[in-house]
Amino acid sequence: MRLYRREKYLKKIRGFYHDSSLIKVVTGIRRCGKSCLLETIMEELGEQGVPEKSIIYLNLDKRGYRNVKTPDQLESVIDGLCQEKGMKYLFIDEIQNVEGFEEVLNAFREEDEYSIFITGSNSYLLSGELVTKLTGRYLEFEMFPLSFDEYLGMKQFLGLSVDPDKTAEFELFIKDGGFPQTLKYEDASDKREYVNGIIAEIFEKDIRRRVKVRNRSTFNTVQTYIINNFGCTTSLTNILNDLRRNGSDITRETLNRYIQVLVDAKILYKCERFDLKSRKSISGEQKYYLADLGFYFATNTDNRINYGPVLENIVYIYARSKGYAVSIGRIGKLECDFVLRSRMMQYSYIQVCMTILNSRETEDREYRPLESIPDNYPKYLVTRNDLIQQRNGIIHVNIGPFMGNGSDF
Known about the structure:
Layout: H1 7-13, E1 23-27, H2 34-47, E2 55-59, H3 71-81, E3 88-93, H4 101-110, E4 114-119, H5 122-125, H6 129-133, E5 138-142, H7 148-157, H8 166-176, H9 188-210, H10 216-228, H11 236-245, H12 252-264, E6 268-275, E7 280-290, H13 294-298, H14 307-321, E8 325-331, E9 334-341, E10 347-352, H15 360-371, E11 379-383, E12 395-398, H16 399-404
Parallel strand pairs: 1-4, 1-5, 2-3, 3-4, 6-8, 10-11, 11-12
Antiparallel strand pairs: 6-7, 8-9, 9-10
């Protein structure tokens, strides 16, 4: 069966396909497409002439391998499958099922005959063991649910109808979300049921097995609160006060731990402030964005779209999927929605707004933070569907066409 190829991620990994010195670690929230990415890499290796017997794939959640729990069992299974001479390509899904897998993988890596690719539950892979035991011997490639350009591409790949008006398609994308499987369901309630299932799966397979959650009700309250208030500027103190006002008896330490659990599982992403004058991060207030807006619409009966945080969330995840580091910008008393830093240490600045057509006051408010930044890095104003403006060299784009084309900031 042919798979939709996530070129955004494949092009980041291709240069390391044949590198036996580094373990390739694909991270990302459950059901975002990590396993399919491994399968497409395997397809490409086959197309390059790599013999089928030299490509080994293990999914440790599937029948036949679910009882592989110890390092010795894992090593034995790999040895039994890897009989070919020369370079072998080893792909392992759900590697966290084997406690102590790091030593096994490192032993195979040191033989210099294995190019190793792994995926796994984030609350395991990012918990410190991998970093400690394989420092300098692995590369992490972070995946996200479908961005808008991928959403359009996958709809075409599946033979689904696509509106030529990218703004109209963008409205569907907001509520559908970016989990690839949701495109295979026609009914909106089925899509939401599927996303609710992802939330339950993350708790059962990732969180509960790894972290002691003594009060499930309190944890759910924290999770619901953060999901419902995505994109809001907040602090731990503010969240704590809001929860206590609503009758939740929770300590600051427990709240901080539960939020970190949600971040580790990649349900949430924390976006901190960045002082544009000192070029330093500012601790304290931050914003939390969702890995996918489907989490919000699946857990709420209200279908209305609050475009402010929704557009911000989509821009944040899109920028992260492009490989940018993202912060909230502070320029004196003004705030720029996002400061992006590329791997080449180039900056760009983004202001996000549903529309600037309501009034001149609104237009000035959105342009002012960008106009106050003294350097010459690119500056963007992102709106939903406005007539394109020209003002002081700032690049004005509408989000649907811009992201639908896969454009870079």
